């Protein structure tokens, strides 16, 4: 079965959109960060924090929401512009965004230092996995060959 450029881009675009949605939902709903669960960095009830201050994992969740939204936009752009150049560009952008998904909780912002904190047990590994799958999807898009001759795009 030979796929044209448009159909060839639908599956990776759908995967990017799904990954972006999962990156957005993970720190808030799927594997919520500590403050969402009502736990402090020390693992006890989070009642003594100053108003307007948050733990590192909260800021990681906010940053990942933005990165996830960009991954969704990359997938939507790939659906709208299914050509060869767009596929390669979406692959590069998706790969970079996948790396950022990994770097935010590990290097750039971080999560709580307590080993049994909810963000360290659930959110961190989930975001690393989602980032890795996003990078793999990006690499696939960059390396995939056209099955039909490329048009102007």
Fold and architecture overview:
This protein has helices at 5-30, 34-37, 56-80, 84-108, 118-143. It has 153 residues and is an all-alpha fold. The protein has one domain. Helix 1 runs parallel beside helix 4 (84-108), helix 1 (5-30) packs antiparallel against helix 5 and helix 4 packs antiparallel against helix 5 (118-143). The longest helix has 26 residues, at 5-30. The protein is elongated. The relative contact order is 0.22. The model has no long low-confidence stretch (mean pLDDT 88).
Helix count from the secondary structure assignment: 5
- What string gives the helices and strands in order? HHHHH
What is the percent of helical residues? 55-70%
* Beta-strand residue percentage: under 5%
Averaged pLDDT, please?
Answer: 88
Largest sheet: none
Helix-and-strand structural type: mainly alpha
Note the overall shape. Answer: elongated
Instruction: State Rg.
Output: 18 Å
Question: What's a concise summary of this model?
Answer:
The chain is an all-alpha fold and 153 residues long. The chain is built from five helices and no strands.
Structural descriptors:
5 helices; elongated; mainly alpha; 153 residues; 0% strand
Which helices and strands appear, and what pairs or packs with what?
Blueprint: H1 5-30, H2 34-37, H3 56-80, H4 84-108, H5 118-143
Helix pairs in contact: 1-3, 1-4, 1-5, 3-4, 4-5
